[in-house]
Amino acid sequence: MGNVQILLRQHVGAPCAAIVQAGDEVKKGTKIATPTGLGANIFSSVYGVVEEVLEDRIVIRPDEEQKEEFVPIEVEDENDKLALVKEAGIVGMGGAGFPTGVKIGTDLKGGYVLVNAAECEPGLRHNIMQLEEKTDITIRGLKYCMEISNASKGIIAIKKKNEKAVQILRDAIKDDDSLTIHLLPDIYPMGEERAVVRECLDKLLDPTQLPSAADAVVINCETLLRIAEAIEEKKPCYSKNMTVIGKLNGGNEPHVYMDIPVGTSVGDMIERAGGIEEPYGEIIMGGPFTGKSTTLDAPVTKTTGGIIVTIEFPDLHGAPVGLLVCACGGSEDRMREICEKMNGKVVSVARCKQAVEPKPGAALKCENPGNCPGQAQKCLQFKKDGAEYIIIGNCSDCSNTVMGSAPKMKLKTFHQTDHVMRTIGHSLYRRLTVSKQVDQLPNGK
Ligand code: SF4
User: What is the mean pLDDT of residues 134-148?
Assistant: First the structure.
């Protein structure tokens, strides 16, 4: 194992401040950084010695021998579950990184804890595998969340295609009237927070509203696991579940890893999964839609869900390209990066008209995730601006609508996820082939 690099910012909010120095010995679970504003405690994920404290990270040289034991978290009142969650440094492990202690500290007045088990990004498998293999502790995590936030209902939102996990969950909750399952269609983006609220509660929130406006919180299923570990074992949040997939020696099947020490390098994870099968296009940290390109020496954080090695990019030989940006896909910068890697020249950029900035400069949010407002106008713009190709980052429904107009205008279409989908043998995002409606289980069970 190489050096472990633990970033001081792994959450929404301000970076944490280091409380260790070079030369300090640390154990698994030693607190090494604390928040300076909104944030969450950070712990060492290994036994070892602090090598360097840099502006943005703490570098630890791990000991050769790594014991399972960890330093338990300490709070004034051991029965205070919210205090345990806060002290454990848990954040939204699905990628959002919002401090969980702040989120579930809201009084939901008998409302809902909605479990985001959509695992919407294609190729990722670790959330579903957790539900299948760590069912009981995940459900206990949900019950703790409901108790802390004063919610009377827990709803697990999961895609219908995950039949085995749905059946296991169904058996596990059958005697608990407070818990139900909501089946989601296999379209992108069902895992967007407000999409989960809309699908489960039939309430469409504005892009500026939080789920609390519907008396709900949305919690990723790995976050539930970490909550249960903090409450039952006093375990700090220093490990991460993830999927490594792509152009790897041995094939393109997903490799699922549980409890990887935060700070492990992307390169170490790829080696564990067999190593890169050269040549390759890029390495992505996260999912195909919202992930970012990364490097072998980048460290895994509390929010890393996927590491993907892709095939090489097609070469557009400098052809003019229009970019159609979605709130739930890559940012404009990411789309430009992909265009550059395809050797295209950006001549026009448009946003889906439902992609809005909730406040100036903030990340885009969709007004109604996954329900297309029509894209013909955007295709007309691209044509007028001289594009021959378009790269779209749209949801399933909008990609389908693009395909209703772009080919007629002789615009050749790529989706920003094409190189990933081709790598993992997934169908490309073009035409919608699944129904947006899903029959629910009787009584949600
Ligand atoms: S409607 Fe537009 S902004 Fe919303 S998810 Fe679809 S493409 Fe993205």
Answer: 98
